[in-house]
Amino acid sequence: MKILNLYAGIGGNRKLWGDEHEVVAVEYEQYIADAYKEMYPNDTVIVADAHQYLLDHYQEFDFIWSSPPCPTHSKMSPVNVARGRKKYPDMALYQEILWLKHFYKGKWVVENVTPFYKALIDPTVILDRHYIWSNFDIDKKQFERDYGEDGVYGRNVGGVTGQKWQTLARAYGLELPEAVKNKRKLLRNAVIPEMGLHIIEELKKEIQ
Questions:
Q1: Tell me, which fold does domain 2-144+192-207 have in CATH?
Q2: Where exactly are the structural domains of the chain?
């Protein structure tokens, strides 16, 4: 398959896909794109606005995965507003769902966090703490993770520093390059690899 991986980040969703597919990853930040390329040297990595890239290139791919920015949708948004950090929910999320649903002929997935509001479009499935919208069936599944002796747990990574970042990265199956900055943000935004694999396997069943 030719896959478009939008808002690629450090490629948590892509980690267990292997190299049988032709993957084009789009990431806005150069340093994140550089880290992705180091981890997945066979992928084509493009530094660009993923939202616009989708609009311009969606017809070129067999499968599209999109993970638009989630902070303005997350359950932390009311807390941030109370602290004076006021932002409208980013409607790029729903723009992409509607665009893919009505204009794209291939298979697609849009992933985001569980929102602080009732979703404007019902998700296809909820996996872990993620809403998944797609045009194919995806079975529910629980994902077990071993966080090692340090006991670093899940997304609760606010106080994690130093070597514990690498422990958490390994729990996600991701070995971050040492030069990567802002590891907290990148790991918090990463989709766990097992979820990415599960969705690809569900897609293969749909195609077969």
A1: Rossmann fold (3.40.50)
A2: 2-144+192-207
**Helix H or strand E encompassing 24:** strand 22-27
- Look at the block and give the residue holding tokens 């019902």: 122
Which is it for strands 107-113 and 44-47: parallel, antiparallel or unpaired? unpaired
Residue 117 has φ and ψ, to the nearest 5°, of -130, 170
- The model carries a pTM of 0.86
At residue 184, the 3 state secondary structure works out as helix
Name the strand (E) or helix (H) holding 203.
Answer: helix 193-207
* 157-171: pLDDT as tens digits: 444 444 556 666 666
Number of residues written out for the chain: 208
Burial of 7 (0-12, 13-18, 19+ CB in 10 A): buried
Phi and psi at 152, nearest 5°, equal -70, 130
CB 130 within 8 A of CB 111: yes
